[in-house]
Amino acid sequence: MDTGTKNKITVDLSTGELLGSPVQNTVRTLRDLQGIFRDETARLAMDLDQTVYSVQVLMPVPEGSRGGLFWGNTFIQPGTVGDEYFMTKGHFHADRSRSEYYLGLAGKGALILMDENRRTRFEILERGSLHYIPPHTAHRVANIGASVLSFLACWPSDAGHDYQAIAAEGFSARLRNVNGAPTLVEEA
Ligand code: S6P
Ligand code: ZN
């Protein structure tokens, strides 16, 4: 009989860490983020084995299944490459109609959103802030604080990830540290 304790998963609400199994863990180091930051020379001068972010994902159904939901926790280290904050690669969902929720848990960040007309904006992501990422919207998160940023995410199991569009064209604006303030600067 299932007592309710089998495969029990808990979220450490102070850090966002997912405890229990099965959880997939992905780590992105500076080496993995070639072409993501504006200042490639600055990135190459850094310790490329340094972790920029990691993601824990709970996938109760196979990727691509219709009707399921995935859960993920992302942890972004504090830091910069040149004047750009450590951030995620960013993606559209492969099925552009699929949306997502983010909930901030620790640290201070910026959720950068770009629609399909390449209009880019950002929302401050911090403990308790809830963000609805609409369909047809590319998203990435930057850590604009001095401590680890962590946030929870929930998205449909058939959303998929399109990293290619961002790898090819990027976002239309970059979040840069301008005189100490996170500022969206349009790409030339
Ligand atoms: C998945 C969701 C997040 C990101 C994670 C890392 O749809 O948006 O779990 O995967 O924050 O970002 P990225 O751009 O490397 O997937
Ligand atoms: Zn997503």
In short:
This protein is mainly beta and 188 residues long. Helix content is 6%, strand content 44%. It has a single domain, classed as Jelly Rolls.
Map the helices and strands:
Layout: E1 10-11, E2 18-19, E3 24-29, H1 40-44, E4 51-58, E5 69-76, E6 80-81, E7 84-85, E8 100-106, E9 108-115, E10 120-126, E11 130-133, E12 137-143, E13 149-156, H2 164-169, E14 173-178, E15 181-186
Antiparallel strand pairs: 1-2, 3-4, 4-5, 5-13, 6-7, 8-11, 8-13, 9-10, 9-12, 14-15
The structure holds D-sorbitol-6-phosphate and zinc ion.
Number of structural domains:
1
CATH architecture, by name, is: Sandwich
**CATH class descriptor name:** Mainly Beta
Strand fraction equals 35-45%
What binds here, in terms of ligands, is: D-sorbitol-6-phosphate, zinc ion
The biggest beta sheet reads: 6 strands, antiparallel
CATH homologous superfamily - what is it?
A: Jelly Rolls
How many individual β-strands? 15
Shape: globular
